[in-house]
# Entry
Amino acid sequence: SKSRRARPPAADILRPEQPVLGQLGRQVGRFHADPSPAHHAFLHDAFQHLAGRVHGDGEADALIAAADTLRRALRPLLFSLPVTHVYNPLDYAWAPHTAYLRKFGMGKKKGLFLGMNPGPFGMAQTGVPFGEVAAVRDWMGIEAPVQSAPGEHPKRRIEGFACPRSEVSGRRLWGWAAAEFGTAGQFFNDYFVVNYCPLIFLEETGRNRTPDKIPASEMAVVEAACDDHLKRVIEVLDPVWLIGVGGFAETRLREVAGDRPDTRIIRILHPSPASPAANRDWAGAVNQTMRAAGLL
# Structure
């Protein structure tokens, strides 16, 4: 008998921007002649996936509401020099961000990866954490309109999915996920990725200024809002493993969820090219950490 390829999860095939019932009908028709167990498993997954879309998926809806609360809380804030520009992709890239939450934020998760804040050629452009354009568009299957950021820095224009630059951190993170899990659906079945802070801080030269370099007095209100958001994401997704991408993220996880029962917190090396260790063998280092935790 001919061997059949394993069917990808429904989340890899069913598109968040297309009508639900039409998609379901096409999938049923496509696999109607195939009575295999894999076919039945796929259709079961598809019905669950689309039922959440029809009736309103609890986790995804809750994540979208939490992100909306966060973006509203951060809008009025002002920051002192050397910060001259502040971008919030939860506003101007809300469409792809909610598509990400809607497509992959359904169901409880085994693990939650937490990043620090957006990079200028990743989430700043696509609205997706570590959102390197090719990974979001081609691997996740997400592409949606992105508006201009208010008062853009001339050296850091928002080009959305037309951005020609590649975000190294995002390329490394999502490239690792693709290598280890295959499809986006397989990865997001068990894991999810969020950033602690959605804001991008830019200096006059266009240089990115990370949240840990912002004065504590100015970050206090930011941290209060971001802590509340992170608590809500953890409550909604109920992960056992909280995985800080870098030291800053691990610190915030321990501060927010260190006393949460039945929760384990670990840190993986941050994929930034500014890290010499990450430039040597980032994926290998992450695999070592994940295997030591029993996650691979």
